[in-house]
What does this fold into?
Amino acid sequence: MNTTTPPSHFLRERIAEDLARGAVREVVTRFPPEPNGFLHIGHAKSICINFGLAREFGGRCHLRFDDTNPEKEDPAFVAAIKEDVRWLGFDWGPHLYHASDYFERLYQFAVELIHKGKAYVCQLSADELRATRGTLTEPGVESPYRNRSVAENLDLFARMRAGEFAEGECTLRAKIDMASPNINLRDPVIYRILKRPHQNTGDTWCIYPTYDFAHGLSDALEGVTHSICTLEFADHKPLYDWFLEQLDVPCHPQQIEFNRLNLTFTVTSKRKLKTLVERGIVNGWDDPRMPTLSGLRRRGVPPAAIRQFVERVGVSRSESCVDMSLLESCIREELDRTAPRAMAVLRPVRLVITSYAEEAEEFFTLANHPKDPSLGSRQVPFCRELWIEADDFALAPPKGFRRLTIGAEVRLRGAYLVTCTGVEQDAHGAVTTVFCTHDPESRGGNAPDGRKVQGTIHWVSARHAVPLTARLYDRLFTTEHPGAEGDFLEDVNADSLATCQGWGEPMLAACPAEARFQLERLGYFCADRFDHTQKRPVFNRIVGLRDSWSKEAARRP
RNA sequence: UGGGCGAUCGUUCAACGGCAGGACAGCGGACUCUGACUCCGUCAAUCUAGGUUCGAAUCCUAGUCGCCCAGCCA
It folds into this structure.
């Protein structure tokens, strides 16, 4: 377990202060997704921050669906989001809410605003509204409907609710300041007419509150103390506060903004992710190359690695784009600690031990983890014919090559020392079989005379091997910032998936879906959540091992 | 050219008027029955210009650069 205390950041400090000076008795946060799409790595940061802070300070975190726009939302997303949050390791307990749970109360708040002369029904069209809002440098002009009487507004708003107006015919607007330099304060729309069924409330309503109106009031209704959101909402804070000041609310939550998470070699915009799915560049929202939580899960990334990643990324108020290598490092760290080891050969070449009896076979006991004995050991079968990795043999090895080559001795991991005596090649010169003799005295992998061998390679007994499919995933984009110059689709990595048929030790067919292993010397793999079966094992490469040899080999002539 | 926010090693986060530090990445080495893990070493930053101060990454002033805002999206 990680015992190092997490570094402090401004959110932690702020909450600690508020607790210390008695501004709040208990911390209440919330994660407020709109159920209109899939959660991705960026959301993971928000989830970890909100649920994590609540857990850390002994408070609670609500899962609240911000479902104020029936045009975009779907109950299927509600279910998917709940599954993802749970998978990430968080629990909202009984605190599952929807903004739509508060529609009646929000309506009453709107009525209260009208009574106070702070809201009015505006019959400007969408185009007229836009034209009168002003620009960044010029103030807007006041709506001709701005000074209607309270009674008239009350009547009109009730008729909006009753469905007497068509979509777009009128809106309810907050009466604030059309000349405000902050455009959010120029009489923002707080209710609009949308005649369509809602994912939670069905056809109960034909008017719906906007985000700005619903969000802060929902926070207040739930007793949220710290409403933590991303930087782009900073401009909305004065409006957030304005509603809470005008209305009779149970408390005044504090909105605090932090920097959104961006990652190199990927995209997180909903639009771009959708394009990847629709163009068939990936196989769905949970394709293992997608930065969605369901994609990361299918890839095999452990949730603990994501939590650790979010912790290491840190929180601040400056925009950032984090190196993908940091995520990969967190994944390797978690998996090195927890993943049992196994052997499989992905690009097989036959190796025949000519000194080993044809019909003989034996089993070697191999540790499942080099450092953690609690992971136990297993029996691995061995015989005269093995599969080894094509990369582990070279007729003309580069300098520094520590693997098999004619005349060289290597260790078959956990088994015997073998010396290559020759090869068989096909018509094109490709090596089809490698011949070796073994040292029977080296059973288990150590020579009795203590001689050192420079290399150790992995292997699978051909007689006992199970066929398996390995999907080798790589980064989805070839550039750090996809689309930085031009269309992001031009930066798609055409080689982000390579599929190969290999052989594995028998244990790999017996494991359940989502089991993770380190295939020694190859990388970390996960039995595919949906496609893996005992009859047809399918493994996804989560991330490769750090590989200092390939870099060095590439430098050599 | 309105308003808001931001600027520290390649990346990211610290340093809260008192020796600019960590992580990732890079580079070099040790160890190794995984060219993994681990360990050691190393490279490397305060946007600019003034000011306040014994002392400034930190405070002040003026710039520069970047991001966000003109949905009846969130």
Observations:
- Residues 163 and 206 of chain A are 6 Å apart (CA to CA).
- Chain A has a mean pLDDT of 96.
- The first strand of chain A starts at residue 28 and ends at 31.
- Residues 41-56 of chain A form the longest helix (16 residues).
